[in-house]
UniProtKB/TrEMBL annotation:
It comes from Agromyces allii. Gene3D superfamilies: alpha/beta hydrolase. PANTHER family: AB HYDROLASE SUPERFAMILY PROTEIN YCLE (PTHR43798:SF31), MONOACYLGLYCEROL LIPASE (PTHR43798). Residues 32-185 form the AB hydrolase-1 domain. Transmembrane segments: none annotated. Keywords: Hydrolase. It comes from the Bacteria. This is AB hydrolase-1 domain-containing protein.
């Protein structure tokens, strides 16, 4: 896969300003893919997936509070992200898309399907989207640090140079051992500010808001249960630190029992990041997504 595939930047008017993002193959025919990144990520986490879906139009925003959208004001909740996605499709002249969400982006995708069902031709949740029970006894203010660990730690750090920021990521247990041009491009895009006080582009306030929304409260569980099928869920056996999974098998099995419309796919030998940011991970997810898109196109063509 050509992981260094260039993108075309875009901006879309949303509440409070302009939401940024990237596009691949904006003139491609057929059902577009709307790709939604994770809680501290940017649209560049989709480089490898976008390269593998080489004949598809891909639209991937930087969510409010992240990337080149980090100056947008709140609210930063999942509902606001979902409405921002609708505005992005409007700005791109797209009526319907196949929606793929990774990590927290999968939660946004579910809310988008709930609030804008006519815009969704299909849904894939990549190591995310299923409610994550909060650890017992942990105060709400401490949840981001407990749940995100090093991913949150970097948001409070400053770096003297871009090289220092890259070096920080190269030490990350879930990315360093799998380093590639695509991962380096993702890291380079995330750098914000000026030397010697560079930092991640993710707004810590936005991240904190979304972290406490991942437990299924506030009507989220009802939105998830009400999704039409099929809904593909991809699970990484190694999680945020390349060790224990974000989603234990028992938790995924519980949701599969509650939701007959779920199709669960275990992707071997990947962690929470490499499931989309490596050739092996993306190459395992893409065939399922491609088949779902083609089925949706066939169904729409016959209706």
């Amino acid at each position: 896969m050509n992981a260094t595939l260039s993108t075309t930047a875009f901006q879309a008017p949303v509440a409070g300003g302009l939401l940024a993002g990237g596009r691949w193959r904006p003139d491609a025919a057929g059902l577009p893919v709307l790709a939604v990144h994770g809680i501290t990520a940017t649209h560049r986490s989709w480089d490898v997936v976008a390269a593998g879906l080489h004949d598809r139009r891909i639209i991937a925003p930087d969510l409010r509070g992240r990337g080149r959208s980090n100056a947008l004001p709140g609210p930063y909740g999942l509902v606001q992200h979902a409405d921002d996605l609708a505005a992005v499709l409007d700005a791109q002249g797209v009526e319907r898309a196949f929606v793929v969400g990774h990590s927290m982006g999968a939660f946004v995708a579910v809310r988008f399907a709930e609030r804008h069902p006519d815009r969704v031709a299909g849904l894939a949740l990549v190591d995310g989207g299923l409610p994550l029970p909060n650890p017992e006894g942990v105060p709400v203010d401490d949840l981001p640090a407990v749940l995100l660990g090093p991913a949150l730690e970097r948001l409070s750090m400053t770096f003297r140079s871009r090289a220092d920021y890259v070096a920080f990521w190269r030490r990350h247990p879930a990315l360093g051992p799998y380093w590639s041009d695509a991962i380096e491009a993702y890291v380079e895009y995330d750098v914000d500010g000026v030397e010697p006080a560079l930092r991640s582009s993710a707004n810590p306030d936005a991240v904190a808001v979304n972290t406490v929304e991942l437990d299924g409260a506030g009507g989220y569980t009802e939105a998830l249960l009400g999704l039409p099928g099929p809904v593909d869920v991809f699970r990484a056996p190694r999680g945020l630190l390349d060790e224990a999974p974000l989603y234990p098998e028992a938790l995924v099995a519980e949701w599969a029992g509650r939701m007959p419309q779920l199709a669960v796919h275990e992707i071997a030998d990947v962690n929470h990041y490499t499931i989309v940011m490596s050739d092996h991970g993306a190459g395992s997810v893409i065939p399922v997504i491609r088949a779902r898109i083609e089925a949706a196109e066939t169904q729409e063509g016959s209706s």
